[in-house]
Write a structure and sequence with these properties.
The complex is a heterodimer.
Chain A: E1 4-7, E2 10-13, E3 19-25, E4 31-38, E5 42-49, E6 56-57, E7 64-68, E8 74-78, E9 87-94, E10 102-103, E11 107-111
Parallel strand pairs in A: 2-11
Antiparallel strand pairs in A: 1-3, 3-8, 4-5, 4-9, 5-6, 7-8, 9-10, 9-11
Chain B: E1 4-7, E2 10-14, E3 19-25, E4 30-38, E5 45-50, E6 56-59, E7 62-67, E8 72-77, E9 86-94, E10 101-103, E11 107-112
Parallel strand pairs in B: 2-11
Antiparallel strand pairs in B: 1-3, 3-8, 4-5, 4-9, 6-7, 7-8, 9-10, 9-11
């Protein structure tokens, strides 16, 4: 049982480049989330998907887009990367109505 | 706007001591308060959680104390061990349809051997 899988684990981008962070869960969870983690800031919600076919903005959505491709997969796209988007990105999922959120291992992104 | 405030930012405790981390929240719509533990290079993992109708929950060496009227909750780690050295995040979940978690800023705990 893999849980929540994120790819890639590490990435370096040049300013202005684009990329997509992939996330997949095999727990049949309805809700999925993207967070970014920065020192002293905790985890801040970028976007979430309460169920397949729906997405909503979180606390810090600017510069990002998401796609809930199916129930398993939720991708995060940076259209034009900026140094301010240097961070560790975490995907998470939980069953609708349940309490525990399960996190992936994270993607460490550096924008130079 | 930080809806969940966590302190201290860092904590150093001797082996066998008690570690205490505090959090305060503002949103009265929060209905679930988990603590997550994160080791370097890993994603956060649920450690212990409490609902607001309970004032205390204990699981092994870990205890959550919850004060609904003060809108505060804390994590106590008894008999702290070097293996407890990690970053701890408190969080609060809103009661809306998305069940979003709002996290505190984190506490880096170091337990000295």
């Amino acid at each position: 049982n893999a849980g929540v899988t994120q790819t890639p684990k590490f990435q370096v981008l040049k300013t202005g480049q684009s990329m997509t962070l992939q996330c997949a869960q095999d727990m049949n969870h309805n809700s999925m989330y993207w967070y970014r983690q920065d020192p002293g800031m905790g985890l801040r919600l970028i976007y979430y998907s309460a169920s397949e076919g729906t997405t909503d903005k979180g606390e810090v959505p600017n510069g990002y887009n998401v796609s809930r491709l199916n129930k398993r997969e939720f991708s995060l796209r940076l259209e034009s990367a900026a140094p301010s988007q240097t961070s560790v990105y975490f995907c998470a999922s939980n069953p609708q109505g349940n309490t525990e959120a399960f996190f992936g291992q994270g993607t460490r992104l550096t924008v130079v | 706007q930080q809806q969940v405030k966590q302190s201290p930012q860092s904590l150093i405790v001797q082996k066998g001591g008690i570690s205490i981390i505090n959090c305060a929240y503002e949103n009265t719509a929060f209905d679930y308060f988990p603590w997550y533990q994160q080791f370097p290079g890993k994603g956060p993992a649920l450690l212990i959680a409490i609902r607001p109708d309970v004032s205390e929950k204990k699981e092994g060496r870990f205890t959550i104390s919850f004060n609904k009227s003060a809108k505060q909750f804390s994590l106590h780690i008894m008999d702290s061990q070097p293996g407890d050295s990690a970053t701890y995040f408190c969080a609060a979940r809103d009661s809306g349809s998305a069940r979003q978690l709002t996290f505190g800023s984190g506490t880096q705990l170091t337990v000295l051997p």
